[in-house]
Amino acid sequence: MSLHRLNPAELSAPSGFSHAVTATGSRLVFLAGQTALDGAGHVVGESLPEQFEAALANLLAALAAAGGAPHDLARVTVYATDVADYRAHAPELGRIWRRLAGRDYPAMAVIGVVRLWDEQAMVELDGTAVLP
Prior knowledge:
By secondary structure, the protein is α+β, with helices and mostly antiparallel strands. It has 3 helices and 6 strands. The chain is globular, with a radius of gyration of 14 Å.
């Protein structure tokens, strides 16, 4: 299995994502959207960075349960209820990502949404991974 990250020179330099990811492997893992829910089903974290960290940890836990690791992520979509707040916290969110998932960035998108399933949730992440 291999993931190859492509960042063409004619596109703007990516920061915290890859423009394209090609994947070869034998198993795809589709990861459901994860928010900052704890094991009891309660949203944790008062700030966007706190909720982002919990949501990413949940996404990575689901990936680990499927036998994967952060470097297996080919695609992640972030749904944010306040894109301006997300942009304002981007450096901190990047540090959280690197601490939990490393520097092998998947193809990513951030999409602004009116609200998420759990009203207290500020951010949700879903993804696709390719495992050997």
